[in-house]
Structure formats: C-alpha cells, structure tokens
Amino acid sequence: MYWKSLDDFLAMGGYGLYVWGSFGMVVLVLAAELWALRQRRKALASEIDE
C-alpha cells in the first residue's frame, strides 16, 4: 500500500483506532507477561535459597 502522508498511514483507511489499539494491547499484554515471569523467577530463586 501507498500512503500520501503520515496521517493517512496512521488512519489506516479508517481502521487506525482498531489497528493501533490492537498493537497497543499486544504490547501491554507482553509487558505484563514479562513482568509476571520476572516475579515468578524471583520467587522461585528465593524459595531455592531458603
């Protein structure tokens, strides 16, 4: 696809809110998963050290 401007790219043919919202949710969920994994790893490491 070819967009004439950055605004056209961001609008995604009228579906920009859905597209960028979906990307945002994926980033949020991945960040939450990484945080949860880090917390579980810390808990396991402290359990092993006891």
From TrEMBL:
Subcellular location: Cell inner membrane
Main subcellular location: membrane
Pfam (any one): CcmD
InterPro entries associated with the record: Haem_export_protD_CcmD, Heme_exporter_D
An example Gene Ontology biological process: cytochrome complex assembly
Membrane topology: Single-pass membrane protein
GO cellular component terms, semicolon-separated: plasma membrane
Regions crossing the membrane: 15-37
Entry keywords, A to Z: Cell inner membrane, Cell membrane, Cytochrome c-type biogenesis, Membrane, Transmembrane, Transmembrane helix, Transport
Role according to the record: Required for the export of heme to the periplasm for the biogenesis of c-type cytochromes.
Family: Belongs to the CcmD/CycX/HelD family.
Protein name (Swiss-Prot/TrEMBL): Heme exporter protein D
Species the sequence originates in: Rubrivivax albus
Gene that this sequence comes from: ccmD
